[in-house]
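Quick one, tokens below. Sequence please?
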């Protein structure tokens, strides 16, 4: 009994107590575990919340902690499932990270990118991130380009046909219509610019970040984390190299895409301004490339050169035809311009002033002139787009064309010398009249102009300082030269072709003036050496290289001839309105003066432009330019001799003198005190000639060299007649 009492009261109770205590402790432990498990189960919800908020580093941190905790409890069967689930979640986070990374390519956001990078660092996958990023960029370029072009193609096609989406980019480019070509090109460049800007900013982020990190590392460089930093610096170098290598790869991609687009359409029938616009966009793109990775953009240059040569041939061909038409309809009337007229006032030459004066706002300057200190990337880093500029600069140009239209303040000049700076499509009549701005009505042409002019000059020799003599056609040629020079400025590689075509314009004008006014076989044979040998060789050269004489007489060898004739122009014919045979107008002296002097004026303009042309000419081709100047441009003034010779020869009746001389009785016994009749006759003719010259000079200013040549011819011919008599 005692034993029993002891057993119950002592052993069982205390042991029971201990046993219960132990049980309780176990349960408390279990409760803790269960609580942890409960939170682990709940983390799922938290994780997806974090991902919603795009807090990738936080989510990954949480995930990794959960994994640690789970590994301590892996003896519970519910936990082992959780573990694999967490692994899935991690992978899912990585996928989302990848998507987030790809967003960087379109528009770079610093906070977003910093988060993504931190997340990758937590995962220990900085290098993978870099490789992925480059893939995304390449993909982004491909997709944006495709989407832009596809958008335009579908817009133009109008139907909602999906066949275009299956096309290759290259074939898609050929579907672009010519009116949507330019907006599409601009959008293409804008889109590509955004991708490149994102890349640029990504690089900047890494550079700044590296500096910060370096600072941190240096402050905590204890022995224990040496290994960690080593790994870190390896990562950093890898990233740096990868980014630098990526630059040229991305630019190469951009170039190829744009090249495909450029060559996809035949530009040869584009309007001139449109073509210049395309060139402008591309040259700006090349500048971007230069700043992006120092590339010379050979791919782009080659493709734009191909297109330009192609375009320019067609363009020049139509221009020559046009010039011929102009020459054939030209009545060789004066074209009224200010006496201070300079070709730089024409808006085709505005670009020359821009490239000289730094004061022009950058938007109007050609890309090359923007000061090199601010790169495009710095300029547009926070928004804006370098490819949007052009649209504004177009408007600026049109304003200053007409600004100078009106009258000069100088009183005596307030006359018909109005500078008109319009395009050649204004009807001739409008150009010739001018509207009196004070009263607002157009004065009757003949009176106003005649009286104004005659009041201004009493004698044709006195007024040497007057407006340049030029015709509508001359102005057109000058405008064309301006346009050609713009082409050259943007397109250094085809400068030679352009200059060659430019020389053809001058050649053709010179040839036309000669054939219209200077060709006269009866006088050529008198062997007076009117045209110098240099002039003759020049004319022959022009005739062989540029004039298509086949038009009248068809020759054999048709195929090669046809090929060559493509390059040539038929010889022009003088307009029917120009009468060169009437004695009253001194055999078209006014028209002759306008023709030769406008040619001389044109030659002077070419002289003025020589340094500009010389600057863009490739060294190997410089002799061509020098030869053109020494042999062709400088012969312009020599045309005066043969042109005016005809006037002098016809205006004075030398035959009558010969008759008078023959009628004189020469066998006189004593010398008469009075001179012979024919002398008076000759003087009378000269006076008459002088009077007519005065009449003509009321219509057209006769420059001094011209009147000198005229009188020289008269005196020579009179001397010949005397000798003959």
């Amino acid at each position: 009994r005692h034993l029993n009492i002891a057993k119950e009261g002592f052993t069982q109770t205390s042991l029971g107590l201990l046993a219960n205590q132990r049980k309780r402790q176990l349960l408390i432990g279990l409760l803790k575990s269960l609580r942890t498990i409960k939170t682990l189960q709940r983390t799922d919800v938290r994780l997806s919340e974090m991902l919603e908020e795009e807090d990738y580093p936080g989510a990954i941190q949480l995930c990794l902690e959960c994994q640690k905790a789970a590994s301590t409890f892996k003896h519970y069967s519910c936990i082992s499932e959780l573990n694999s689930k967490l692994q899935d979640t991690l992978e899912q986070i990585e996928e989302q990270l990848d998507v987030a990374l790809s967003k960087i390519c379109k528009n770079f956001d610093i906070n977003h990118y910093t988060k993504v990078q931190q997340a990758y660092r937590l995962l220990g996958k900085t290098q993978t991130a870099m490789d992925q990023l480059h893939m995304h960029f390449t993909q982004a370029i491909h997709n944006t380009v495709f989407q832009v072009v596809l958008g335009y193609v579908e817009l133009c096609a109008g139907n909602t046909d999906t066949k275009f989406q299956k096309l290759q980019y290259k074939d898609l480019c050929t579907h672009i219509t010519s009116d949507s070509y330019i907006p599409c090109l601009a959008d293409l460049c804008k889109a590509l610019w955004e991708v490149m800007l994102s890349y640029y900013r990504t690089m900047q982020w890494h550079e700044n970040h590296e500096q910060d990190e370096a600072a941190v590392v240096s402050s905590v460089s204890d022995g224990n984390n040496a290994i960690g930093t080593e790994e870190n610096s390896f990562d950093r170098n890898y990233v740096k190299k990868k980014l630098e290598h990526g630059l040229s790869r991305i630019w190469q991609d951009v170039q190829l895409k744009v090249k495909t687009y450029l060559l996809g359409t035949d530009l040869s029938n584009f309007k001139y301004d449109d073509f210049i616009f395309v060139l402008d966009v591309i040259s700006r793109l090349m500048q971007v490339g230069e700043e992006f990775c120092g590339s010379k953009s050979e791919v782009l240059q080659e493709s734009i050169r191909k297109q330009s040569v192609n375009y320019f041939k067609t363009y020049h061909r139509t221009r020559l035809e046009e010039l011929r038409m102009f020459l054939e309809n030209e009545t060789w009337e004066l074209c009224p311009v200010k006496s201070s007229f300079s070709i730089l006032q024409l808006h085709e030459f505005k670009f020359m002033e821009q490239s000289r004066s730094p004061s022009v706002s950058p938007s109007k300057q050609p890309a090359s002139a923007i000061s090199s200190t601010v790169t495009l990337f710095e300029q547009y880093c926070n928004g804006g787009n370098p490819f949007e500029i052009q649209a504004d600069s177009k408007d600026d140009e049109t304003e200053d064309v007409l600004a100078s239209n009106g009258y000069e303040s100088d009183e005596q000049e307030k006359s018909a010398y109005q500078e008109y700076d319009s395009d050649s499509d204004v009807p001739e009549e409008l150009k010739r009249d001018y509207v009196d701005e004070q009263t607002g009505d157009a004065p009757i042409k003949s009176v106003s102009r005649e009286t104004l002019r005659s009041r201004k000059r009493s004698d044709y020799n006195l007024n040497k300082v007057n407006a340049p003599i030029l015709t509508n056609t001359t102005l057109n040629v000058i405008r064309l030269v301006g346009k050609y020079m713009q082409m050259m400025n943007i397109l250094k590689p085809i400068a030679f072709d352009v200059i060659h075509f430019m020389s053809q314009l001058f050649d053709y004008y010179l040839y036309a003036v000669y054939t219209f006014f200077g060709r006269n076989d009866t006088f050529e044979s008198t062997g007076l050496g009117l045209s110098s040998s240099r002039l003759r060789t020049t004319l022959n050269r022009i005739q062989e290289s540029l004039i298509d004489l086949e038009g009248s007489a068809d020759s054999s060898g048709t195929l090669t001839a046809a090929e060559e004739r493509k390059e040539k122009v038929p010889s022009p014919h003088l307009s029917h309105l120009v009468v060169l045979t009437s004695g009253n107008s001194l055999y078209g002296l006014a028209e002759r003066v306008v023709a030769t002097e406008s040619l001389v004026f044109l030659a002077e303009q070419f002289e003025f432009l020589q340094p500009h042309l010389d600057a863009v000419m490739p060294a190997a081709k410089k002799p061509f330019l020098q030869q053109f100047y020494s042999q062709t441009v400088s012969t312009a003034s020599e045309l005066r001799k043969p042109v005016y010779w005809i006037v002098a020869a016809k205006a004075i009746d030398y035959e009558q003198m010969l008759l008078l001389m023959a009628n004189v009785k020469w066998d006189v016994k004593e010398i008469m005190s009075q001179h012979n009749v024919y002398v008076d006759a000759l003087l009378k003719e000269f006076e008459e000639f002088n009077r007519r010259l005065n009449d003509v000079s009321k219509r057209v200013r006769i420059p001094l060299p011209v009147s000198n040549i005229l009188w020289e011819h008269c005196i020579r011919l009179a001397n010949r007649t005397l000798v003959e008599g």
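Strands lie at 547-548, 569-570. The radius of gyration is 44 Å.
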